[in-house]
Amino acid sequence: DVTEIEQEEAQAKQEEQIMKEQELSNLLHEKRYLKALGLAISLDRPHTVLTVVKAILKESDGRKHLEENIARLRKDQKEAVLAFLVTWNTNSRNCHEAQAVIETLLKHEAPDSLLQYSGIKSAVESLLPYT
């Protein structure tokens, strides 16, 4: 019978998730946006990533800080953000943040580099009607 072991594993995962949520909240409060972005992406939380982007843009020199933070993300993290912003861009309340991130990606990534992103073709096709 492995029921008890499975319950313990599920509880451990749930506790870890709660700890990460608390850490994310603390990072946002401390304005440590790069770590907050990385953690929100790793948790696969598009709305939380959007919240971080909005918080960055509210700062003075928000665009500059957004560019710095997005530029420092790893390629896989940028791919995740690209997938998230496709959804954000379809909503008029979030389209400005999505466009700011797209602008940053287009400014700081070479076209050849962007073409290497997984899902770039479908992302561009989805972005064009709303952009």
Automatic annotation (TrEMBL):
One of its GO terms (molecular function) is U3 snoRNA binding. It is found in: Nucleus, Nucleolus. This is TBL3 protein. The lineage of its organism: Eukaryota, Metazoa, Chordata, Craniata, Vertebrata. Residues 21-131 form the U3 small nucleolar RNA-associated protein 13 C-terminal domain. The keyword Repeat applies. Keywords: Nucleus, Repeat, WD repeat. The keyword Repeat applies. One of its GO terms (biological process) is endonucleolytic cleavage to generate mature 5'-end of SSU-rRNA from (SSU-rRNA, 5.8S rRNA, LSU-rRNA). InterPro entries: Utp13_C. One of its GO terms (cellular component) is 90S preribosome. It holds the Pfam family Utp13. The gene is Tbl3.
